[in-house]
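Q: For a teaching session next week I want to show students how multiple molecules come together into a single three-dimensional assembly. I've collected the sequence lines for a complex. Could you give me the predicted structure tokens for the whole thing so I can convert them for display?
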Amino acid sequence: MARTWTTHGGMPGDQFKADHVNDEANAIAQQVNGQLDQNNMPLETITHEHFVDPVVENNVYGDNTLSTYMPTQSYHQSTFAPANEDVEQGDLGPNTIFMTNWEEDEWNPFWNSIDTNTGAETLIFRSNEGMIYGGVTLSLERRTAYKVIYDEGVPSYFVRGEDTISEIGVFCNDVLIARTGEITTGAITIDLPFSCPIGSELCTIEVKFKSSQGVIAGTVGILTGAINTDVNKYFALAGWQLWARNQYR
Amino acid sequence: MKSKPVDDRLAGGVDQRWKTSSNNASNIKNCRVEEQGLGWVNDRGWEPLIMAPVGTTTLPIGLGDIPFPTRFLKVWSRHNGGEVYYLYERNGKLKYDFGNTGGASTRSVILKEDRNEPKANDIGTQLIAYSKFALIMNGFDRPFKFWGRGETTDFGWSQPPNAPNVFDPNPEAKEEGMSVMDEGDVCFYMGSSVRTVGMGNNEENDYSTYKYKVSYISDTGSESPLSASVSQTWVISAEEQEGFYSCFLTDIPVGPEGTVARRIYRTKNLENNPAEVYYFVKQLNDNSVQDWVDIIKDSLLLTEAPDGNASIILPQSFKVGGNWNGCMWLAGGSEISTKIHYSDRYLPEQFNRFRFFDVGGRTGGAVTALVPYSNNLVVFRENSIEAISAIAEDEYTISTITADVGTRATNTIVEVPSVGLFFLTNDGVYALTGGQAGAGLVQLQCNKVSAGLHKEWKRLSEGSLARATATYSNREKEYWVHYPVDGDTENSRGAVYHSQNNSWSLRNLTDPKYQVKTNLAYGMYFTHLDVDPEGWVVIGTYPNYPYTSVPVAEFVGFPGYGLQVWSAAPMFGHWIDWTSTTQTENYTVNDASKRELDCIYETVFDDLGDDSVKKRVLSVEVEMVTQGYNDIQLSYRSDYVFNPTDGGGASAMTVEKYKTINSEPVWTLADPGDVKNLAKWGDPWSGDQLCRVRWDIHTGLVGATSWRIHGMNKFHIISYHIEYMDGKQKVITHRGSDG
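A: Of course. Below is the structure for the complete assembly, covering every listed component.
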């Protein structure tokens, strides 16, 4: 449908005909329904004056989400990027890092919130009906180890971790929408994209992790039982960026 | 005496012949045939293509190009209609306007300036769509390709490339494996043992001679003529110099804008074989590099260069052309007026010297148009029509269709779907019908299709026929031709063929012309017509004509100072009224309202079988589509008198509902008075209905009558009949001179 002009003219006193009104409205309706191109945009309907600046909001919901709301979409991001302030030899790496600190046998093999105040593990924003597209890029580290238990100076037994597995998942309003699959030990950076439909609501996107490790005991002397905390190398996250775009329907 | 009706007659089209069907009209002005082909509607007017803001508008000081006539108009679309260009030419500027100015300071994109202003016998600028570009030419300025947006490149070449400089190798300066430059001589030396690269003979006292040529490749893939040749010779004068060498080409010419590559050709060693045969060596896939070193062995040269006839410089003064069968066909203009050149297939700028037809051997005059139609390329000449047909793959023949009819009105040749190829000649509109069946069997026929308008064609300004313009709109289902009459050099009148019911009507503003402001009278000076992809007829005008040299305060711009669109706008465009000059000229924009006699349906004189039997016509009953409360006027004439008698006004409405609460909802009146039922949201609205409207006219005893209805208010006539009484006595005795 290209540009249109008057299809039915009306003068005062002329009969007001439904067919004519429908014809005129149809031309507009086709444009509203997406039949737009260079020429069929009604003239002067969009000029520079009609373009509004995006509305930028920062930390409105207390989670450091930086949001940009635009006419047809909104964009949201948050970043956890600890500064690398420690340059001592042998002690490289950021001085602030997220690390699990569970006590003995408090190992939780299910989805866990990153419950340290990094201020960037969630995005909270007002979504409009449409789709959410986004991604999280993060660095994680997970190791395993063994430990020798001494009994009055004599090694009596050791414990060793096994099946050391981690996983990262993304939740939209508490529904899992993307996961990495199980990741074995190492220090890696992952890039996890996600998308899902969304309604017009307050939307929370959260990054969670899962981590588990078995422990076995090796016999040297008397075996009294192995506990996880003896061998657990913490699960650590060294920064991430989380972003999402809400494309309105 | 009892009155009697004639049978109900469907309202027919215009037929000015003496003896015609009595339901035909003698004049239908500014009406169209309704969508289903039933009846005549006067709901057409025009409005600006780009609407000026209502109220005050500002125009440049001195009006700029605005008062100049539109001398070219073509709607061209690319990308499946995604890009639509309303190209037009005014005051030598070829341009198009875009709707949304955004941050731009102007809404016009000017493609070319200072172009030739066509005289009244010149068809002006022509556009030929070919693949992704359009060839635009006028026979005077350099033809060019338009690629959309603002991109243009020259069409063809005005001269062959210059030959490059070639430096021969200097064996004395050889240094194995390296290049040495010595006073411009470059020597890439390859030892005698090298078998894959290197030129020339390699032993002591051997001579080597080579010749080079280059060509351009344009953005259509076409290849220019080859340059003149340039040669070099060298000799190996000592045993230490033995080996193969290379030639160094510099100043390889950079082609005109639109060149995408250049090709280098050379001979094999002419010392071994003196036959000067050129071979393709290398294509440089850019238009910037100017140096190249040739180390390619003779044995690797396999493809022969095109010969000197494969691509020639075509005179750039061609005026007409067509895109048919993958070739670009060009003809007309001062240099090749009877010669039709056609390009290589799929290479629209590459013209072989011998690919042409010369129709000068047959009478018929200059070629005036090349139009693809059916599976032929129709060649229009001033006084004949011929057809080119393909008889084999890329082989063509030409034959005459008629030596009786031709045309100079190139811009009126338009195909009317399922009817034929229409065109205007000195004596009316003809149509080519039919097509080719089998190789070489031309079955095209040429027939006159407008005999019913013979009075109109007598008025044509034959010398200005090149100015006539036409278009076919699938939206309106009409072929509209607009032409100059009565010695005028601008198009002022139009005739319309309605394919829905195979009839004609007229389109003009001649009696009286449109008057605004100072009572100057303006006509429907539409210099160009074309149609956009949706079927909207786009109109180029001559604003203010015939009052072209007026002060800014007198400029009214009728029938439109920009491109216009034929639409249901209840007005004839806008006229503007000067208010002041404050840096720019300020004008108030006004609707050009329709007037009483701008839309007419007038019947032929009907003697009801015998004009000598006198009868008294009592009334005219017209079956119409309901329109509302606005009155339509009827007037009638008896016995061929000039001045019609007023028959009064009546509104097209079901009579029982007139001014009752049951009347159909209507648009608000400024003074509703006793109109009972204004249209409101939430109320049901009606559609079209049939109604019968009667005008009582009461003639005296007369032989023949004609009636017409007219008005600025809308009407839609479907059929009619008249009620009359007659006597038995014939009046065939001459009366005295006093009557």
